[in-house]
């Protein structure tokens, strides 16, 4: 008799939909497919979104988010969870409670603004992010705008990244990745748990088509954790994957195009 294939690691994304396909749930699932895990999803919001920005956003009710999560996790199990757009305090608190009762590593991408500067997190939800969501995170992955929202720290250099990391860790995540791609020079990210420091550097590619980088990085980290990698190994591998995806990003529409989630698959042909 044929041997049934082994079940791959299962990674669940809890995030909003990007109708343009470059970020959000769509980017997460593409990343998971590219990295060889089984992707599952809990939809938190629907956006009308393209290369020019976000034209509209509609949040799902908390009970719909809770039902999706329980439906998937209770039947299929989960090896790691990644969170993205949670636009209200009610959603943040609902998801945080679900995560606290789930025995799996959690990657929190504390989405606050889109690539185009559109607000994706209500101001009144920030305290829930600080006190409910970040404490259940294995890894949190804020960019510099999100660091400023959450901690009040404005980062202008690498010393500021270290201060921001300390402030973020004070809210409870086990590890934090401070993403420094918006600073001048070659991109550098800081991964730390307060005792270990890992500075992750990469060349800056001359490519403006970077829509979806934050979602993609967080999802790639979750894929590594689902495979049993430790946090530094998972983050380094995710950084390499995203760097390649940025290099292969392509023009789509009249604005900022997406990264190429399938670049490794095409290079392997």
TrEMBL record:
Keyword Kinase set for record: yes
EC numbers, comma separated: 2.7.1.49, 2.7.4.7
Gene3D superfamilies, per the entry: 3.40.1190.20
Annotated ranges, domain Pyridoxamine kinase/Phosphomethylpyrimidine kinase: 18-260
Cited InterPro entries: HMP/HMP-P_kinase_dom (IPR004399), PM/HMP-P_kinase-1 (IPR013749), Ribokinase-like (IPR029056)
Known pathway: Cofactor biosynthesis; thiamine diphosphate biosynthesis; 4-amino-2-methyl-5-diphosphomethylpyrimidine from 5-amino-1-(5-phospho-D-ribosyl)imidazole: step 3/3
Keywords: Kinase, Thiamine biosynthesis, Transferase
UniProt-recorded Gene Ontology molecular function terms: hydroxymethylpyrimidine kinase activity; phosphomethylpyrimidine kinase activity
Catalytic activity reported: 4-amino-5-hydroxymethyl-2-methylpyrimidine + ATP = 4-amino-2-methyl-5-(phosphooxymethyl)pyrimidine + ADP + H(+); 4-amino-2-methyl-5-(phosphooxymethyl)pyrimidine + ATP = 4-amino-2-methyl-5-(diphosphooxymethyl)pyrimidine + ADP
CDD domains in alphabetical order: HMPP_kinase
Uppermost EC category: transferase
NCBIfam families named in the record: HMP-P_kinase
Function description: Catalyzes the phosphorylation of hydroxymethylpyrimidine phosphate (HMP-P) to HMP-PP, and of HMP to HMP-P.
The protein, known as: Bifunctional hydroxymethylpyrimidine kinase/phosphomethylpyrimidine kinase
Native source species: Streptomyces laculatispora
Gene: thiD
């Amino acid at each position: 008799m044929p041997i049934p294939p082994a079940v791959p690691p299962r990674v669940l994304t809890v995030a909003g939909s990007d109708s343009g396909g470059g970020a959000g749930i769509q980017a997460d699932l593409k990343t998971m497919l590219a990295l060889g895990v089984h992707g599952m999803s809990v939809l938190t919001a629907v956006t009308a979104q393209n290369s020019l920005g976000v034209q509209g956003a509609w949040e799902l009710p908390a009970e719909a988010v809770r039902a999706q999560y329980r439906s998937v996790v209770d039947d299929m199990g989960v090896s790691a969870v990644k969170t993205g757009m949670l636009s209200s305090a009610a959603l943040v608190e609902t998801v945080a409670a679900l995560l606290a009762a789930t025995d799996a590593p959690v990657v929190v991408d504390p989405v606050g603004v889109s690539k185009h500067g559109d607000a994706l997190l209500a101001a009144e939800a920030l305290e829930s992010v600080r006190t409910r969501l970040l404490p259940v995170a294995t890894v949190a992955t804020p960019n510099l705008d999100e660091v400023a929202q959450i901690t009040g720290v404005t980062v202008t250099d690498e010393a500021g990244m270290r201060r921001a990391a300390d402030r973020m860790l004070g809210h409870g995540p086990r590890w934090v990745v401070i993403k420094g791609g918006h600073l001048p020079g070659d991109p550098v990210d800081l991964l730390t748990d307060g005792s270990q420091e890992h500075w992750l550097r990469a060349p800056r590619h001359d490519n403006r088509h970077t829509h979806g980088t934050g979602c993609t990085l967080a999802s790639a980290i979750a894929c590594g954790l689902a495979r049993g990698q430790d946090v530094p190994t998972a983050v380094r591998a995710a950084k390499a994957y995203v760097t390649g995806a940025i290099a292969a990003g392509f023009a789509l529409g009249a604005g900022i195009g997406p990264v190429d989630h399938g670049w490794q698959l095409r290079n392997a042909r």
